[in-house]
Amino acid sequence: MKAIAVLGILVIVALAAVYLVFSKPAYPMTKEDAQKFFIEDLADKYPDADVREVVEILPATAQDGASYYQLKARVTKGLSTPCPERMHVFYDYPPKNFVAQPPEYITRGCEVCLNEPNCILAFPEEAIIASHTYPGTEEIAQFIKSNTDAQASAELRDSYMNYTGVWVVTWRSPSLKATASAVLSKSSNQAIEVVLGREI
Length: 200
Hints:
35% strand, 28% helix, 2 domains, single chain, four-stranded antiparallel β-sheet
């Protein structure tokens, strides 16, 4: 009789232990864990990217009441080249049985404002492309053609001369120690100024 009671207690303890082990979520559910997991996944999927960064994390609830995070990341390839490619990648953590969203391309094929009738240069990749493709930037395009090692950097400035919200894109040729710069309106599809030989 005592043996049956002891055996019953052992079975209850074993079942409780099994329940505790399997009731824990397979994925840690903190924002930091979600971000770390996503960055590791991006590094595996886009090893040649220059930039991989999480830009947004939002808590969400599935129809079954389970909590998860919706994440959005920036992935950029060829950041300092004439035609950088930027995409936004979306992810659910923990992974759900949803159809994965395809990446959203912001720049691709050296074009800016894909599928956008009113172009606003929101990202540095767009400004870099616009700096040599907008009307009035022909000198920058020639500079890049003549200096194949030219590398770009883009900076959004609150003001420049009488303008507000402008991108300053600077091209530098390390071999010739030459520069070319373009000032672009963020929202009016125009080059404000192009300067060769010095930085703005």
